[in-house]
Amino acid sequence: MFKTFFNFEFKSWIKAPMPWIFMFVIGLLACLGTVSNDVTIGGSFGNIYKNAPYVTMTWYVTFSLITVLLVAAFVNSAAIRDYERKTSQIVFSKPISKSAYYFGHFWGAILVSMIPLFGVSLGMWIGVLLNGIFEWTDPIRYGGFELKSHLMSWIIFVVPNTIFVGGILYAVAAKTRSTIYPFVAAAALLVLYGLSQSWLRDIEYETIASYLDPFGNKTFSVATKYWTVSQKNTAVVGFTGILFFNRLIWVAVGLLALFLGFKVFSFEEKSKKKKKKAIAAEPTGLAIRHLGTLPTFTPRKGFGVQVAQLWSQYKTETIGIMKSVAFLVIALLGILNTAPNLFDANDAYGTHELPTTYTMINVIRGAFYLFSIIIMVYFSGYLVWKERNAKMDEIYDSMPMKNWTIYLGKYLAVLSIMLLLSILMIALALLAQTTFGYNQYNLPTYIRELLIMDMLGFAFIMALSMLVHSLSKNMYLGFAIVIVFLFAVDIALGAMNIATNMLDFASTPSYTLSDFYGYEPFWKGLSWFNGYWLAFSTLLALGAFLFWNRGKESGFKKRYAIAKQEWGGYRFFGIGAVTAFILIAGWVYHNTFNLNPFNNSKEQELLQVRYEQDYKKLTRTPQPRIKSVKYDIDLIPENRSMVAKGQYFMKNISGKTVDSLLVSVPTNKEFELKNERIDLLKNDSAVNFRIYAINPPMQPGDSMTLDFTSKFIPHGFENEVTFAKFVQNGAFFNNTDIAPFFGYQRSFEISSKQKRKEYDLPLRTRFPKLNRTDTLARSNSYLASDSDWVMVETKICTEPDQIAIAPGSLRREYEENGRRCFDYKLDQKAWNFYSFMSARYEVARKDYKGIKLEVYHHPTHDFNVERMLHAMEKSLEYFTTNFGPYYHKQCRIIEFPRFSSFAQAFPGTMPYSESVGFIQDFKEEEGDLDIMFYVAAHEIGHQWWAHQECGAAMQGAEMTTETFAQYSAIMVMEKEYGRDAMRKFMKYEMDKYLRGRGRETEKELPLATCEGQGYAHYNKGSVVMYYLKEMIGEDSVNVALRRFLNKFKYQTSPFPVSLDVIDEFYAATPDSLDYIVKDLFEDITIFENRCENVEVKELDDGKYEITIDVSSKKFKSDGLGKETEVPVNDYIEIGAFAKAEENRDYGKTLYRKMVKINSTDNTFTFTVDEKPQEAGIDPFLFLIDKEPKDNLKNITL
Amino acid sequence: MQLSIRNLSKTYPNGVKALDDVSLDIPTGMYGLLGPNGAGKSTLMRTLATLQEADSGTATLDSINVLEQKDDVRRLLGYLPQEFGVYARISALKMLDHFAVLKGITKGNERKEMVNALLQRVNLWDHRKKAVSSYSGGMRQRFGIAQALIGDPKLIIVDEPTAGLDPGERNRFYNLLSEIGENVIVILSTHIVEDVRELCSKMAIIHQGKVQYEGRPSEAMSELNGKVWEKSIAKSDMEAYHENYQVISAKLVEGKPIIHILNDANPGNGFASTSPDLEDVFFSKIMG
To answer: Does A697 score more than 90 pLDDT?
Structure first.
């Protein structure tokens, strides 16, 4: 008997789409998380495999939580199906046992509820397989398939959680016999869970929280808290201890609820009521009454009637969707997935991001769209089949309405649901912004982005989906075709190297909004491409009108005949739609192929290959050196145009005769080069490379001038907007965008190892080897090969209401021909590497000891301007005191639009992206360091490290610039916030370094020989320099740096190498500590410090005695991460901390002391004055640590 | 008003010949379409209801070409299919209202009056706010009738409408139909002979896609006058009788089989003459 009900429940679901759809969705998420390098859900970072057992278990914990609502749907339907379908009387009148009925359905539904979670294993497995083929992510990020972790996840999480949730919800459903209450109960469970976890978040309640978490999430994270990377990669959490008891408790709770539900469940009570109702439904009198003649209203026809029919159709469908369980569940899941992200946006360094509209829109797209797209794909198909699925099609199809009204009613219903969901998201986002006290509400942007641009994309996909379903013979086949099509188009076009948006369904040029220019540079292309797809979608709709599945014919011939009959009604519309499509397509083609031809990535690569093959031999051809530059730039921002005239003054310092000029000209622009001595020998315009003969040749020491003209005038619109640098407001371009440069450019070569192999190119080193005596390599800094320090003079004109900026001091501002013009000139020679900008700026100014501090910003972006000026002042103060003078008369931070997201240092000028520091960040948390301050200090640091000296173009170059800029920033921050506040910064630097080395594609190198590896020269650089400073003292480090700087300041060949500064470090370090310099700069040294145990005794005098057991291991690593243990004999810090105050990440430092450690296991005892919260070893992360999180241990008193 | 069907043929892709050169003239009034299951009745009705295409032949309703002017037909049509379902979670009132709009009754007050009248007529008024999906079989059938009567249809097609109705309900349903059928064409398809005899002034018998008989039921019966003989026999003899006589029907009366045979003259052997009923006509036609 039990088996009958169990089988019935199980089998009826197995045939239904719901479990499989949800399995697909979960599988898709797991698969994306597994293949994508950017998705770090599941706790995979650094060296932890993306499919590590730990990651698997984290996925399962997370999903068995999210799927509570799914369980609700399944058990709910199991409990009340017989009432809903009115089969209860039949079923209950049979001699069945109550318990078999109750429990049979329950266990059947429980089994089904777990089906979707198979998606986790399946998705991860497929992800690993796919990545094996496509290598989106480095294969070393994957380990083997660990079956045990999957099995244990089921035993520990999936099964107990499903029983717990299912038991409670089934009892609720059986008792209430309502569709709504179980969902309310499910939501309540989730809300209660969230609240209890946030109340018990405090570390003091860790153990209680471990028991109380009904889903075992907290329990799992506590149990695995101190796991090392290798444990995470190999071990499976043990089903013992708190985890075991937790599971036992909550399964018992679920079963108890189930049993209580059984006690109050009864066939009788409700079925009696039902019988009464049923009797009432069959009156004893006449079932069909004669009540005189029926009113005779004749059906109308005409367009008005069709509109009314459309409206009625639309209303019915919209309400139908909103009442459907699938919609409610998916939408709720989407909201649950999105809301926390909207209300808690953290950035890379743990500071709060400003909840700007852009941020909110990104969160909505990232967290919610998957769900709304599922809703769209599902309902746009389901509605096409709705009548047939309900067996209502015969009645329906014989009604005198037109196909287009049915189609459009359904189409608009789904579109409205999508709109509704997006509007809901906007409301949530506005609420989140209000909660943060952010009041720059930008409703127009929300509307344009989410309700217009995105909605258009959805509208196109829906048109496709509904046509496919109209033609398909089966609903599931229809879904499969739509989904496969959407994925396949991209893959197929990619494989064929077709880059035009005209063939990639629903795709339009990508764009980045900015407060500076709104949509302006993109508007034209976006409008035409959207128009193009709208016209195409209209054709799809026309197809659906003609082939709408109406009636009982399924053969193609008959349906074609019907379509031909239908055509009569759509003749004019159809001809119009086809004509419109052809005209628009022609216009788009003309613009994107004739006016603005473009290369696809394959063509681009082939050009790179050819460039290398044809011209690499010219690498050592002597070239003149640029000595000074003059510009006359005419910007016409209104139509994104620019005409730049320039003049180089060049000198032959090569010591050889220069008889040819190898010119790389700015890409995609009209360009002219003029001098009487040069003749064009070759113009290879495909790779923007020209060769001129110099006649008579330049003798050593000879000089000449060279005039050039560079024009950028856009025509029509492009497939993808190139040169977004020239915009209506906020133009931002470099000298390399307008001026030529000389010699063979190594940077144009293909750098990817894999691609080079593909094209049979020789192996390529990233940088020449570090070698002091390589004078050829030392003759160029890594910034330029055709110039050293140059003087720059600029005249730049722009729109009257914009301010244009060029390098150097402003000499004159004036009006010329109705344009606003500015003359700038450098006060100090600098690298031939700088930017020009023009925008409607507001300027904040301050004076610091004769240096003009200026912040140019968008009028509404003034949140952080004061802090920027403050950071500039503090930085200049520290750097001039410790490193030497500042050679420019101004120090500018200039905001540029968010099409790129970086900050950069040019001589005296630092462009900052709108998204870095201007619309980001900084709820001011007193005493807490912020990323804005750090970025400003780092960029100003470059005014010394890069702009006064710069490493030669060989290994270790960035150590002389980026690493010291990091050190400079750290010192300014330490002065501002205090030594104890550096914990947070170091934690993030350590994390970034560890992640970075885990993603290294070739091999990691010691800092002294780093090759453009950001994780090394920035993040490891910070950690290493900070430890050096702690060990030999700030003054000694600064002395060493100053000596290095003075030796190379504004010098030309030979440029410095990392060894030059390492020499200075050795010189400043006592011999006994020389090993440190080697460890830090010449080796890859890694520690494994860990706090094993902490004991605390409260002393009679109110103080606390802390005893810590710590372990320390030291390793040397090779470039591929293979480690060799070496004896530890190092100075390592120990410390203890108080509990963090509200809104603080870290508590007060109670104790910190550097101790010499020369064995693995050590015990230390010390006394602190206040109640400690955590204690351990190397709390400030001075030393590179494999697992920094286990350095401190929480204290439970 | 007259529906003329000429040489209508239809073969399904699986080779089944559902309609084979069917020609019928259907005047106003109740018209019975009698045939065993699978005779092609439903195919014919669906074709008339614009849901299927014929391979060849024509059907005209006065001046309307039924096979091509689908829209015009649909506006005159009331169709109750043999089997139908409904959406979940929508009340009878809302569903009927939606149907009325689709039918072309777009004026709000007219529609309200019509929907209310129909709901009362089929006695669903008290349950109008309940979901149709929760209705019992009889209630659901009545809902089906209500929707077929929306918009004063001139051509009503009802396919096996009495399946699932109890005898009382069946009678009331037929009363309603015959009332309406005075001025419009009502085509009633059924395999129950009784229904046709009670209701229809004209009828056709269809078997294996072919029209076996077209005419008045009474004429059909009088054709058989004096040709139908009956006898009560033993069960065990059944086979022998089937071999020796043209047995057209056999039914049990008080547990004993009574057979009807067709014979121009008195066959003797204990057979007694009986007045032919429509059932005899039906069986004689489809066995011929």
So the answer is: yes
